[in-house]
Amino acid sequence: MGKEYLFIDEKEGLDRVDGKMKVTGKAKYAAEHHPAGLVYAILVNSAATKGRIKSIDTKKAERAAGVIKVITHANAPKVPGYENAPRTGGNPEKGPTLGQPLRIFHDDTIYFNNQPIAMVIADTLERAMHAATLVKAEFDTETFSTNLAANAAKGVPPSNAGRALYKRGDADAYKNAEVQVEQNYVLAREVHNPMELHSLVAIWDGDDKVKVYEKTQGVKSSQRAIMDAFKLPEANVQVIAEYVGGGFGAALRTWPHTIAAVLGAKAVKRPVKLMLTREQMFTLVGYRPMTVQKIGLGATKDGKLTGITHEAVAETSMYEEFTEGTVNMSKFLYECPNVNTVYKILPLDISTPTWMRGPGEATGAWALESAMDEMAYALNMDPIEFRLKNYAERDPERNLPFSSKFLKECYQKGAEQIGWFKRNRQPRSMQEDGWLVGYGMSTGTFGAGRGRASVRGTLSADGTMTIQSAVSDSGPGTATAMTEIAANRMGLPPQKIIFELGDSSMPPGPTQGGSTTTSTLGSAVVDVSEAIKKKMFELVAKEGRGFASAKYEDLSFSRGEISQANGRGAKIAYTELLRKNNLPSIEITLNSQGGNERDRYSMYSFSVHFVIVRVHPTTGVVRVHRAVGVSDAGKIVSRKTAESQAIGGVVGGIGMALMEDAVIDHRFGRYVNSNLADYHVPVHADVPKIEALFIDKPDPHTNPMGSKGLGEIALIGFAAAVANAVYHATGKRIRELPITPDKLTG
Amino acid sequence: MIPFQYVRALKQRSAIDAVLKDKSAQFIAGGTNLVDLMKRGVTAPQKVVDITNLPLKEVVLKNNKLLIGALALNADVAEHPFVVKHFPLLSLALQAGASAQLRNMATTGGNMLQRTRCPYFYDTVLPCNKRNPGSGCGALEGYNRMHAIFGASDKCIAVHPSDMAIALAALDAVVLVSGAKGDRRIPFTDFHRLPGDRPEIDNNLVRGDLVVGVELSQNAFSKHAHYLKIRDRASYAFALVSVAAALDINGNTINNARLAMGGVAHKPWRLFTAEKFLAGKPATEENFKAAAALEMQTAKAYEHNKFKLTLAPNTVVEALKIAAKV
Ligand SMILES: Cc1cc2nc3c(=O)[nH]c(=O)nc-3n(C[C@H](O)[C@H](O)[C@H](O)COP(=O)(O)OP(=O)(O)OC[C@H]3O[C@@H](n4cnc5c(N)ncnc54)[C@H](O)[C@@H]3O)c2cc1C
């Protein structure tokens, strides 16, 4: 925070509390910790895709200058938690995978190309890197398959079908409809590629206590994973992630490299630093799985949906089952009597995918919202009109009311902003400066969840309030939003609020994912603020002095003072109150979670994306010329961080729509673009001005703030909006992402 | 990366001698390509000879010739007033390359000598005749979306990645070289070579050859020049196809045309046939299309780069239209 605030203007929001630290380089990320005696680890990867390690020669590496130890499956100390490890990755009795997270250096089996087969630890990074090139392995290889597109028909049901298999009314009813659309949509494999590479520094204290600085989206879940692996009690494992340079889901779970580094540090009895290379980020920390989908839509001639069929096949690894809610939104987004969904997986000789921003729904929305556009054109209806005609006022899947839904308002607001109804709806009818111009839109939705969180609030006699929770901030600005919530609730200027996070020894906070942090943690911040205010009320009531007969509701807590809400009568500063009572501080730790409101209401956030694209008619270059996003994310509790989320979602969406594609050469099972020169994410020149609008109406049921999640819906649907705009511009429907120039030339 | 020795040359002669003496020595200029290749294990010099202290940074206009020192930075050349005024094609091509940060490090000599970005060349686990002669061409039946449509062989279908080089080829630049046997001048179009049976050899330099600069003659193309680069994102990506187009136009008649393409061959691909066709003809879209079509007769595509058969001629036409302002 550079500014001194008296209060926060809601329309403007609070500056990032950690902004200055980040831009001046003072913020310390995991790999920037250098404890005394630190040594460096480098992972050596398998060149084979499937089979067994026949031999692994580490002698040369061991003899190289500065090398302290080379760990392989042949000499790795046992990881106690690897024996009888819980089968978290699916049920092998019922499903097609082993259902077993990768146990690093556990045995000689190779499940995927670039799987770690050794780890070199040396006194400098360069020496470790060099020695890593000296490790030579031979493999007994087996035939393998890494190709989903060619084998999608072989998809099988997951062991945990969950909500994937679904039917309401008749299956495939679209086939009997007056107007039908049936198409396949392919989503390329996307890698999260946060700026900060996954890294950690592991420091053992004796044999049974370890402290780990790690890049993670959940310090508590990371702590739990290390406790389980090394069979240590909670008090003996501390995980710290004060700053995280982006996650997008890649740091939601604890990956095998973390266990490797902790194991290595124990083996060499020195602190060990391990940072993955960019290439390793493609295989060791998940990705958004390639998914092939079929959508069937049926409608009456006047545009009433009569059938929706949504089928998806997604890739996963041979050892673990990864599933996501790809087909979920088709069940409730539109009013339709007949809906059926099928979700399948295809285990391949690749590493395990994971959640990536807008998990499942971003993949599903790309298909559903493309098909909705195709149907609107088939019906000769405006795509918004068509959606409104099939608007679901209640959740048709659960037959429950929505806790709040302002999607209609989103359509309206966005359409006005971008001039939707002024366009010529005819495909290939608009041009500007020799470029074809197209308008496109789509809808996004994601569950508005709330979990459990504990926080500790401490109001000190010096007038500052410290709030702590073991949550990590992967980038959205959690500390800023929490400061804003606390400042408003406590009636304190934001610079008096100190929000501390990123340390597992604090009261347990949630893992940052699924757009739930603000809802979950913010509620706890509200609760602890209210509890501290009540405590102060007890003190003033005791005090007398004109407060004796006051009721809590009659008091105002503002600018660090308690006064009568009517402005008359007594006033006392928080600081004075504490001093008078000889209290250095008021400290309250509490746990916060919702009630049964989720059984009574369906809770979702909604977004609508509008874009204008320009497409060059002969070179096929696509530029997003304008992007307007409107979100129904309930009450906006922190304007600036909310806008940043919405903008970031669109930037990610441009990548998904136009360029991201992690390519495997299926002859080798190996990535051929696992670097940031060849795997493209948007650069500044790809990003137009992004207009992020909010409905900003509180949801009466989600949580005490009335907020709903925002991070996911900022991305979900965007790719379809671009594809729809490209269709409007060119008359050409692209059903395979990303929309690169080659798909539009010829 | 393997351990290596680093020496800094203060004299041109000692730099050349250092590389002549030691078979595994290489010059290093900006290092933006060499260091990447060393980290990936694609090349492993035991000695790198830093040439950045040599007095080869100048850009001067003398006797109607522009001399660009081999160590002049890409950013400086792109913004140099002489270049912007008399050789806008070169300025545009440089600006289309890499990123601002890289252009601040990259040198003129290093740029023309940068190696292909073919993924099979970069990954030591995969086959590549250029990196490891005889191991096979990984791209031939692999992921060859970025690869050549002209002049390739079944040993190698990689392309030269430089944007600057495309403009220099179009402008008939001359490379000034100093080596074991003294100084040489190599016309830019003869500087790089086609892969043939020896794809490991990118160009016609021999061991010890130091590029000292590039010479460009004043020309009549400065009013009608354009560099059009088609890529997967708006900036900071290698070309799918790029075209350097320069026209000398009188009224509506083309006196002379210069055309070169990037992203399509192992070397900057001059379109001599198209140039000849255009000379003396009116600057019209029909003529541009006809010229591009002539050139495409020798094109050959692979599984993933068939789109270039359409994109390449379309880009030629677009570049010519922009250059001619029609
Ligand atoms: C992510 C990324 C994106 C890029 N994008 C583009 C792009 O879009 N377009 C583009 O054109 N380029 C691009 N580049 C490449 C960049 O232009 C080159 O790396 C740069 O021009 C090389 O110049 P340098 O001075 O750093 O060369 P160095 O890395 O120092 O040297 C390259 C080679 O030239 C040799 N060498 C250098 N100088 C001399 C000399 N005077 N005489 C003899 N031999 C010499 C060296 O021995 C070495 O073999 C990109 C690079 C990166 C890393």
Structure description:
The complex is a heterodimer of chains A (746) and B (326). Chain A has 18 helices and 31 strands. By secondary structure, chain A is an alpha+beta fold. Chain A has a seven-stranded mixed beta sheet, with helices on both faces. Chain A has a five-stranded mixed beta sheet with strand order 7-15-14-13-8. Chain A has a five-stranded mixed beta sheet with strand order 18-19-27-28-31, sandwiched between helices. In chain A, a hairpin with a 4-residue loop joins β20 and β21. Chain B is 29% helix and 21% strand. At the A-B interface, α3 and α18 of A face α12 of B. Bound molecules: flavin-adenine dinucleotide. Flavin-adenine dinucleotide binds next to β2, α2, α6, α7 and β8 of chain B.
Mean pLDDT of chain B: 97
Q: What count of structural domains of chain A?
A: 3
Quickly give the CATH architecture of the largest domain in chain A.
2-Layer Sandwich
How many angstroms does the end-to-end distance of chain A come to? 53 Å
**Which structural category fits the helices and strands of chain B?**
alpha+beta
Strand arrangement within the widest β-sheet of chain B reads 4-5-8-6-7
Name of the CATH superfamily of the domain at 225-324 in chain B: CO dehydrogenase flavoprotein, C-terminal domain
Bound molecules: flavin-adenine dinucleotide
Order of helices and strands of chain B: EHEHEEEHHHHHHHEEEEEEEHHH
Let me know the average pLDDT of chain A.
96
Question: Which key phrases capture this entry?
Answer:
heterodimer, A: 746 residues, alpha+beta, Aldehyde Oxidoreductase, domain 3, Aldehyde Oxidoreductase, domain 4, 3 domains, seven-stranded mixed sheet, five-stranded mixed sheet, 31 strands, 25% strand, B: 326 residues, Uridine Diphospho-n-acetylenolpyruvylglucosamine Reductase, domain 2, Enolase-like, domain 1, five-stranded antiparallel sheet, four-stranded antiparallel sheet, binds flavin-adenine dinucleotide
